[in-house]
Design a protein that fits this description.
nine-stranded mixed beta sheet; globular; four-stranded antiparallel beta sheet; about 35% helix; alpha/beta; 2 domains; Spore Coat Polysaccharide Biosynthesis Protein SpsA, Chain A; 16 helices
């Protein structure tokens, strides 16, 4: 069906109010119809073939590079934190619904469909008192004249869960994940916001003790969140250190339309087009607006208590030191290429690009004259750079590091999600399954050029690497369009280096049960 017959004249006005060009909406619909070309995997990146390991002999020099750069204020931190905790509490919400509808409200055996589900539920209630969420849970239950211990002993699990995840009590399933208590310390509970701030003090604070941190937040309740984070930052700052905080929300101008199975745009009860947030790729404009130099990028839920943070801090500093070191060489080569460089100097730049940056070039590059090579090299080198930590693959869901084949024939290093490949191609599945490493979103970004000017990051996006996802609106299945992911297609044109980091630096909390893992228990804090 032609796009022109699917849209109304009023759609133009509605899109203008949202700050979305109507032509962009038409392009989105065309993308639904055409689909996205699957990423073509060549092989997984491995140690020695796309993934570096840091030698102990180089660590001292890398830390020195890091210290020089952080001291003069080049470093900052960017944390996407607009997501709700609904996924984190999904299993408990499902359990609550089952318990509520069951005549045997205290029977986990009846409520849980699978043995593993039952095992996790029993573990959760058995260990609940060890979790930081129990502090606030005890408070709201006590306010109603009952006690947490009493509800556990009498197996009133449905009532307990209603206090935890619904608006009867804490309403955690509808709160931003950054606000959920993750860890218990001698000074009280810590949320992901707290832990991200504490980590920033140890990684990005300059010589004046100033740590620049940017959080993306949900629009709903933004003012309250900002006030809360500012208040927590004042409590966490110590030894002369302080924070320079900034915040942003995902712009509705980056939202995309939803369509049904026939690619007909979904409309609300008012007849207006239904728009949805377009995934974390929409945050590229927020990253640009932050105006940083060297930026640490990390998910809100990948945090550790203080006693488990040593490896994280050390490797953050090492990755940043590597970026500064490589960037220094890169800028020198760009300066050389912009002058009357000799053929020998051009060749040296080419070898740097191949050996140090893992860059591949199109067939026929060797036949070009020195000046043509110089122009190609300038185009490939004058780009933002990212150093991406990679952990050994332990079966976690998510993307990984791969060599892929671009349309122009070159191989490049990219972070790829499973949804981006052709799942019906046995060869592609085999390559995917051979991956040795996983992307924990532990990235250090260099977003300024050799002259210190910000790159136009939109120029380096692969717009053909978005995703079409299946979602639900009001119980109806729809198709949603996600922009190229922030660390996937949005950074596809960046210079990319993958570095192995220890698994101890990766402790995400995707479900409530993850908080029961040893890595989220503070060894320095013991309950009385």
């Amino acid at each position: 069906m032609e796009s022109s017959t699917l849209f109304h004249s009023s759609d133009l006005i509605y899109c203008q109010k949202r700050g979305i060009p109507f032509t962009a909406v038409q392009e989105q619909h065309a993308q639904f119809c055409a689909g996205f070309r699957p990423i073509q995997l060549v092989r997984s990146a491995t140690i020695g073939d796309g993934i570096l390991t840091l030698l102990s002999t180089t660590e001292h020099s890398l830390l020195n590079e890091y210290k020089k750069a952080v001291t003069i204020g080049r470093m900052s931190k960017f944390v996407p934190a607009s997501g709700a905790a609904s996924r984190m509490f999904h299993s408990l919400s499902k359990l609550l619904n089952t318990l509520t509808s069951s005549s045997q409200s205290g029977s986990l055996q009846v409520a849980c469909e699978e043995p593993e589900e039952l095992k996790l539920a029993e573990l959760f209630f058995d260990q609940l008192g060890r979790l930081a969420i129990s502090v606030e849970l005890e408070r709201v239950i006590s306010a109603d004249g009952s006690f947490l211990k009493q509800l556990l002993e009498t197996k009133q699990y449905g009532q307990l869960l209603s206090y935890l995840i619904t608006d009867k009590g804490l309403n955690y399933s509808n709160m931003p994940k950054g606000m959920i208590p993750f860890h218990s310390t001698k000074d009280g509970v810590r949320t992901p916001f707290d832990e991200q701030l504490a980590e920033a003090l140890a990684t990005v604070a300059d010589e004046n003790g100033m740590a620049r941190v940017h959080f993306t937040l949900p629009e709903s309740g933004r003012e309250q969140l900002e006030s809360h984070i500012w208040a927590r930052s004042l409590l966490l700052a110590d030894q002369g250190k302080q924070f320079a905080l900034s915040f942003s929300v995902q712009s509705i101008a980056t939202d995309t339309i939803a369509v049904d199975e026939n690619n007909t745009p979904i409309r609300g009860s008012n007849g207006q087009l239904v728009f949805r947030p377009a995934g974390h790729g929409a945050l590229l404009s927020n990253l640009v607006g932050f105006k940083g130099d060297i930026i640490f990028l990390k998910n809100i839920d990948n945090v550790q208590p203080e006693s488990k943070r040593k490896d994280t801090i050390r490797y953050k500093q090492l990755l940043a030191g590597l970026l500064v070191s490589v960037q220094s060489e890169l800028f020198n080569h760009i300066h050389t290429l912009q002058t009357n460089s000799t053929p020998e100097q051009v060749e040296a730049c080419y070898q740097f690009a191949r050996q140090r940056l893992n860059l591949h070039f199109q067939a026929g590059f060797d036949t070009l004259d020195a000046d043509a090579k110089r122009l190609v090299l300038l185009d490939r080198l004058n780009r933002p750079i990212r150093i991406c930590g990679m952990v050994k693959n332990q079966g976690e869901p998510g993307g990984g590091p791969f060599w892929i084949r671009e349309e122009i024939g070159c191989e490049t290093l990219q972070i790829v999600e499973k949804a981006q490949i052709n799942l019906s191609d046995p060869e592609q599945i085999s390559i995917w399954n051979s991956s040795t490493h996983f992307n924990p979103v532990d990235i250090v970004c260099g977003v300024r050029d050799y002259a210190g000017q910000p790159f136009d990051l939109q120029k380096f996006v692969n717009h053909d690497s978005g995703l079409i996802a299946v979602k639900s609106i009001g119980g109806k299945t729809v198709k949603a369009l996600e922009l190229p992911g922030l660390w996937n297609g949005s950074m596809a044109g960046w210079i990319t280096l993958f570095v192995e980091v220890p698994i101890t630096t990766f402790t995400p909390v995707k479900t409530i049960y993850d908080l029961l893992r040893p890595e989220h228990q503070d060894e320095e804090y013991k309950e009385d």
